[in-house]
Amino acid sequence: MTKTSMTLLTLACALALSACGGKAEGEHAAAAEGEHASSSAGLPKGDAAAGREFAAKGGNGAAPCASCHGADGNAPIDGMYPKLGGQYADYIAHSLQAYRNGTRAGATATVMAAQAKGLSDQQIADLAAYYASVTGNLRDLHEAN
User: Fold this and answer.
1) pLDDT per residue over 79-102, tens digit each?
2) Domains along the sequence of the chain with CATH
3) Mean pLDDT of all residues in the chain?
4) How many other β-carbons are positioned within 10 Å of the β-carbon of residue 40?
């Protein structure tokens, strides 16, 4: 399998995970109202302003996200770091949870596991809300070939 195929497979799996809420019918309304979880990741409602501050300053042993992903997550310092600005909140939340739990592999897994290990559920939700609110310059893979 080529590197591109692996990347596409990883993305497809992450998007599929983000679509799976695992909630019974009727529980979505409570989550949308902010009572419990705000995403399929089972996290509290995220605060984009708090996420922006955390991304800029870091904390809990994590370096500022901008150190590698650039301002607003749109200018990574190297091609191995993904663009985060404009990304789906659930994708970011699931990714950070998997890094924190040590269940996500990949080229940056060791670096990100160290960054995510001290993050609380609220901090993950805040970062996900922030990056989802940023106007990104991501592009889809519609014409990748």
Assistant:
1) 888 999 999 999 999 999 999 999
2) 3-133 (1.10.760.10)
3) 78
4) 19
What is the total residue count of the chain? 145
DSSP for the chain? Answer: --HHHHHHHHHHHHHHHHH-----TTHHHHHHTTSS-SSTT-PPPP-HHHHHHHHHH-BTTBPPTHHHH-GGG---SSTTSPP-TT--HHHHHHHHHHHHHT---STTHHHHHHHHTT--HHHHHHHHHHHHHS------STT--
Tokens standing for 119? 């993050």
pLDDT at position 6 is: 43
pLDDT reported for residue 36: 45
Whether the predicted model's global pTM rises above the 0.90 cut: no
